[in-house]
Amino acid sequence: MSSEKMETVIDDQAQSGGPQAEAARQVEELRADVDTIDAAIVAMLAERFRVTHRIGLLKAQAGFASADLRREASQIAALRDEAENYGLDPNLAEAYLHLVADAAKQGHEQLARQLGSR
């Protein structure tokens, strides 16, 4: 086998009628489920950032720092536990939290700058 990455075009396999066509059709069905889940995740992220935007406004108006390291540590531990309960890699859950928390803090800092320049 060569070191080049292999690719299987599932659409082609599903239409081929060959021995792998049924597996390819099942992959297509599962991918539709993944697409639905991804769309729901994006909707939930949008809602999460609407809420964190409101938090950022309140923090900026009160003069609070954008970071709350105690809260972050607590959330990391809670999400890691939750991930384990669902059979998900806790490192993935933690990486997610860092991604969204960092983005939220950047937004909070931007709001603080905007309110401070008025």
From TrEMBL:
<keyword id="KW-0413">Isomerase</keyword>
<dbReference type="InterPro" id="IPR036263">
    <property type="entry name" value="Chorismate_II_sf"/>
</dbReference>
<dbReference type="GO" id="GO:0009697">
    <property type="term" value="P:salicylic acid biosynthetic process"/>
</dbReference>
<dbReference type="GO" id="GO:0004106">
    <property type="term" value="F:chorismate mutase activity"/>
</dbReference>
<dbReference type="InterPro" id="IPR002701">
    <property type="entry name" value="CM_II_prokaryot"/>
</dbReference>
<protein>
    <submittedName>
        <fullName>Chorismate mutase</fullName>
    </submittedName>
</protein>
<feature type="domain" description="Chorismate mutase">
    <location>
        <begin position="21"/>
        <end position="112"/>
    </location>
</feature>
<dbReference type="GO" id="GO:0046417">
    <property type="term" value="P:chorismate metabolic process"/>
</dbReference>
<dbReference type="Pfam" id="PF01817">
    <property type="entry name" value="CM_2"/>
</dbReference>
<dbReference type="InterPro" id="IPR051331">
    <property type="entry name" value="Chorismate_mutase-related"/>
</dbReference>
<feature type="region of interest" description="Disordered">
    <location>
        <begin position="1"/>
        <end position="27"/>
    </location>
</feature>
<dbReference type="InterPro" id="IPR036979">
    <property type="entry name" value="CM_dom_sf"/>
</dbReference>
